[in-house]
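#structure-requests
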Amino acid sequence: MKERILRVFDRWSMDDYWTRQLPDMFIVDFQSSFRRATRGRRCWGELDIVRATRRDGSNGPVIILSTPCRFGEGDKPACHGTVRLALGNPGATG
């Protein structure tokens, strides 16, 4: 299953990611639940890609990612939630 999810990125290089990360990636939905406040010291965040779907959008093809996420500070988690991302221009190469 893991390999099928990442196939939508099979043509992407790290240069493609860095080029696209701001102009072509959009947060479609974000939900979170905070257990405690964070102060910004030693902050970390993680997300797992659990589903990736390629679709035709009105402005061309997009990839929709569904991801659970976690944020924390030091070794303590502070927040958990979900993020859905839309990635534009998935067929182009860098």
